């Protein structure tokens, strides 16, 4: 497929499958009490929008292997509900201020209500998986529940790694450390799980799922590094706090690179700054760290790794999908490897 066409195919598919998933998701938001303290909050993040990459990848993969949209839709809804639940928790843990161009849920309603809402939204994500039993049969539906449990554990382990590094003020982290964390925290939910679930649905659970870990890792890691870069160089469409990752002390590829290349005096200052609470970290200190990233070429370094990972994702894509008939869904999956660098 011509790479020039890919962005249009990706945008159109995200819009179509995203709209379907959002419409189906609405049925799972109860109109009940306590509304102002729970049920109104449940729908907040999902209704703010989002790119819908995860649900669309699930549906497209299922269709590539011969399933209908309806067979994949409930699983796509479950993925989006879990994604939004984890966003609420992430924002609390990171002390983030913005999500999708609006204040975070805990900034609006306080940590206790936001935390409870994230818990409830994670529970709610199980309902479409239970509804799958009637749609695609109990054997396949149960396999998807088990896959979902694996994804949730991988995500929790990755989040623990990142939070632990910040709590313990860890330094000397390698690229391999970062990529292992991203494999778990980002890739399983963003790209591995949706691809595996879609393939399970499309083949009635008769395909080797291991190649989807490789493809999903390369795609998801490139996506995460690009997201980290956008945090440093945001455009008008960026919906989160600029330089928020530095304020939060996240051990991104760029921050780890700066620490490795800095001389001992700068390392000591970096360690002291990163050991302080976010609330006392100043804009001037963040700007100093950001300038070091430019000075040591950390941004270009991370960008190069992201593009290399996207190239590896294309290689794994070919091994999985090139034997299948061409279709818009297949083009969409391939196009994601380009879209992650040009997404709005």
Automatic annotation (TrEMBL):
Keyword flag Metal-binding: yes
Keywords for the protein's UniProt record, in alphabetical order: Magnesium, Metal-binding, Transferase
UniProt source species: Rhodopila globiformis (Rhodopseudomonas globiformis)
MF terms in GO: metal ion binding; prenyltransferase activity
Family annotation (InterPro entries): Isoprenoid_synthase_dom_sf, Polyprenyl_synt, Polyprenyl_synt_CS
One annotated GO biological process: isoprenoid biosynthetic process
Names of the cofactor(s): Mg(2+)
Classification via Pfam families: polyprenyl_synt
Domain of life: Bacteria
Recorded family membership: Belongs to the FPP/GGPP synthase family.
The name this protein goes by in its record: Phosphoesterase
């Amino acid at each position: 497929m011509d790479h020039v066409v890919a962005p249009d195919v990706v945008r159109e598919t995200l819009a179509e499958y995203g709209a379907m998933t959002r419409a189906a998701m609405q049925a799972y938001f109860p109109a009940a009490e306590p509304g102002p303290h729970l049920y109104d909050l449940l729908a907040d993040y999902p209704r703010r929008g989002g790119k819908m990459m995860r649900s669309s990848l699930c549906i497209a993969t299922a269709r590539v292997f011969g399933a209908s949209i309806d067979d994949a839709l409930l699983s796509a809804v479950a993925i989006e509900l879990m994604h939004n639940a984890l966003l609420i928790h992430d924002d609390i843990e990171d002390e983030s201020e913005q999500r999708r161009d609006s204040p975070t849920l805990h900034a609006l309603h306080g940590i206790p209500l936001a935390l409870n809402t994230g818990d409830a939204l994670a529970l709610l994500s199980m309902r479409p998986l239970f509804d799958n039993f009637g749609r695609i049969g109990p054997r396949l539906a149960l396999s998807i529940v088990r896959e979902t449990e694996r994804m949730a554990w991988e995500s929790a382990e990755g989040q623990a790694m990142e939070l632990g590094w910040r709590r313990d003020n860890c330094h000397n982290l390698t690229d391999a450390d970062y990529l292992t964390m991203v494999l778990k925290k980002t890739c399983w939910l963003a790209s591995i799980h949706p691809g595996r679930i879609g393939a399970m649905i499309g083949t009635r659970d008769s395909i080797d799922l291991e190649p989807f870990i490789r493809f999903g890792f390369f795609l998801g890691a490139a996506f995460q590094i690009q997201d980290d870069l956008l945090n440093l160089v945001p455009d008008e469409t960026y919906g989160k706090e600029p330089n928020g990752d530095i304020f939060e002390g996240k051990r991104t590829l760029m921050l780890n690179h700066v620490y490795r290349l800095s001389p001992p005096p700068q390392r000591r200052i970096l360690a002291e700054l990163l050991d302080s609470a976010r609330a006392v970290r100043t804009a001037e200190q963040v700007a100093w760290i950001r300038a070091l990233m430019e000075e040591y070429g950390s941004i270009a370094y991370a960008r190069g790794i992201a593009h290399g990972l996207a190239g590896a994702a294309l290689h794994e894509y070919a091994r999985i999908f090139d034997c299948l008939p061409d279709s818009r869904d297949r083009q969409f999956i391939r196009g994601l490897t380009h879209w992650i660098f040009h997404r709005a």
